[in-house]
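Fold this sequence, please.
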Amino acid sequence: MDRPSDRLFPLLLALPLLLLELASLTAYGYFRDELYYLASTEHLAFGYVDHPPLAIWILAAIRAGLGDSLVALRIVPALLGAATIVLVAHLARRMGGGRVAQTVAALGFSFTAAASIFHFYSMNAWDVFLWVLAFHCLLTALERSGDPAAASGSSPEPLRSWLLLGAVLGLGLLNKISVLWLGVGILAALLLTRHRRVLKSPGPWLAGVLALLLFSPYLIWQTAHGWPTIEFVQNATRLKMVRVGVLDFFANQVFTLNPVLAPFWLLGLGALLFLPGVRRFRLFAWIYLTVAAILIAGGGSRPVYLLPAYPPLLAAAGLAIERLTERPGGVVGRWAPRAAIAYLVAAAALAPIAVPLLPPEQFVAFARTLGMMPPAQERMELAELPQFYADHFGWPEMVAEVERVYRELPPEDRARVKVFGQNYGEAGAIDVLGRRRALPGAISGHNSYWLWGPGEWDGEVLIILGGDLEGNREFFEEVVRAGTVRSRWAIPYENDLPVWVGRRLKMPVEEAWERVRRFI
């Protein structure tokens, strides 16, 4: 019988991550994507060029209730992270693990890149949560399908469990298309293990149908808009993402998961495949390997894309370590839990790599001392800060400089001007932060901003962020440099950023808009 303390234990394991996220809640500033997502809440739809709609719908509700401050924006992913860690601990428990296994799984996952995922609002926070929830639903469906009546599909219990899995996968797809990889991984895992017999029952197939039905509004939106996401993915793979080979892919996994934790997930993968008492959950190893194979085949996938597949591996590692501790009198048994605790403490010490606990100057010194500056994931110039941190900087300076330029315009120009951003971060900063300064709205050709169009802009005057004089003169009869955005810690292409004023568009607005389209 479960003791109350057994049920509370996973909650205690979630506290370190929650406290870590709360301590850094307002550190640095808005992340580039947060500004874009906030802008997207002004254009609610069933889809966007670069992501499905669920996270935006939820954010719109959060914004309506709490506002768009950093605290309002980030308290939800922080709480979502804590809930995810509770699920990770419970996953270890369902696999037969006690407190040692739960501790290794929960704290181990807390100090991976999950800490950075749950620091700011994005679809990725919901993605990780829904993957772990799907693992639980899969276990429940398989457990209940073990009933004799389940072989013919006549029992309602396993069918309801499979439909619950389908609902979670469907919501996952409405949040992020990469849940398709999880679906393929589950199918491969069922085929490659003793669980293949459940494929003779309707449950798994009905789960897939339900997931696709929930996903269908996004598919309909894609069809209506000419499938812009295909163009986006092709351009991002070809022009933006750094291509990696198999060895580099797994080397990046070591870094992303926290180098100190590499022995844990490697042990977990081995335990799932070969260790008696653990390998009955081998399907989780096949899910992991299938998703990894898909990402490797893609060639340009970010290392963090595989992150949601790691909780079962860490749970299995905890289970293996716990089995060692149960062997009386052995040296390995005595030292296994101590070594595990030492590794977890060392992993926690690297938390500033994932969460902005240090001021920029101190972070740079810390990362260089350890030789752990995160690798670039996109083809762009980096400066002192890694991309993930640099994308938090420069937005207030950008808005302030645009405001100065805007205030210096004649009244007749201020009444008709718009601000053009080269990317959704720049446009989002003007729309979200600039609104507080009564700046005009932003337009951009980047991703969903292009679909939202130029609005009522008449082509007479435009404040332009970035670009060069020659390129801007292709569009306007008169182009004048009116300012410069400077921010030491911003991504280099946003630092020393010119601000132009263009007057009298040389072509119809519709033609110009087609030329600035950029899905990447």
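Strands lie at 418-421, 442-444, 461-465, 476-485, 497-505. The longest strand covers residues 476-485.
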